[in-house]
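The instructor's notes for this session suggest beginning with a concrete chain rather than abstract definitions. Hand out the sequence below and ask the class to guess, before any prediction is shown, which regions might be ordered.
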Amino acid sequence: MILDQPIKKWFVSKKGSDSNLKSLLKSISWRIVGTLDTIIISFLVTGQLTMALSIGSVEVVSKILLYYLHERVWESATKSKINEPEKEYA
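After discussion, reveal the predicted structure:
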């Protein structure tokens, strides 16, 4: 494929790991898959498309907020452990 190498530069870092752009796109695509799943399940349970779409739209906003809060808690918990000086016992 002609565009394979130029496009690969966007998605793979120099260290060979996923780039920030790739991680962002994967996060967005996963959120879309999760929201579609919620809408389908809501439709199967309620039988109402309007209700399913309402639940899906609330879910996408709430899960973004919950994920953000979850990340901040983890960041603060791991940061305090890393920056704490080790106690020496005699």
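Then share the key points. The chain is about 80% helix and 0% strand. Helices lie at 4-11, 20-46, 49-83.
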